[in-house]
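Researcher: Next sequence.
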Amino acid sequence: MKVGICGYGNLGRGVESEIAKNRDMELVAVFTRRKPAKSLRINANVPVVHVEDAAQWQDKIDVMILCGGSANDLPVQGPAFATLFNTVDSFDTHAKIPAYFDAVDAAARAANHLSIISVGWDPGLFSLMRLVLGAIIPQGQTETFWGKGVSQGHSDAVRGIAGVTGAIQYTIPAEPALASIRAGEMPALTTREKHTRVCYVATEKDADQARIAQEIKEMPHYFADYDTTVHFISQEELKANHGKLMHGGHVIHAGQTGQNHSQMAEFSIRLDSNPEFTASVMLAYTRAAYKLAQQGECGARTVFDIPPAALSATSWQQTVQHLL
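Model: Next structure:
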């Protein structure tokens, strides 16, 4: 299948590197607002195209992978690109997903395209685990913990604040809350009790750092519900000490079955590279988008709507024989 990438930040570069590991995919173009330095490109033979020229590639791309940020890019790009291509994106502002779904769905249906939204590990794989575990043990409680690690979406949101030249945000799970859930105690935890957030921010020389810190801490959907610490550092220190993009997390479900037997199930990941793993998840759903579009499906979809077998590069028969 012919694949395009829109956005060439950490996630876009991750998608490019992972396409090489999927034999049924070919990257045909990268779309960006500005042309990145060739030294940063993994495949110098792939053309770099300005996003305003994307419509000229409609007959050359089967699925466009949207790698922009959820704060500012995807709310505009998601519906716009759904009118031109089948798409996959990683929109991750949980509270706004229903409205985003509706906007992309309307655009995709009007153009007879298929768009899978909010694909990654959370939302994405963790969303599936929350659904599956909660359905299996309905008398129970599901809790999700993220980190310790770098949140790409939250870091991107901080970088969008006026006066900020660079930023990294770490999400840190509260160990007492994590231990309590694993012990099956099922406490009623607030958002603030489950995680803290720590930001390392570089700014312009004369930037109002007090104003920036306040904007970060009061940002709805990102920081307002958490205890957030903001550290202002130099661009050099940010680059030297905060260049790794590791992450991880846990979905834990505890409850009772039958004769009040306690049951606990946990799904965990530990990532050296958040963008490369997110990219890998997106590529599996890119394959599914291609298959379902070939079958005539259109409109928006979530990970809940995609048959697991559609993610695999092997045939249904091979998947059943080797994995079931």
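Model: The two ends are 27 Å apart (CA to CA). The longest strand covers residues 247-257.
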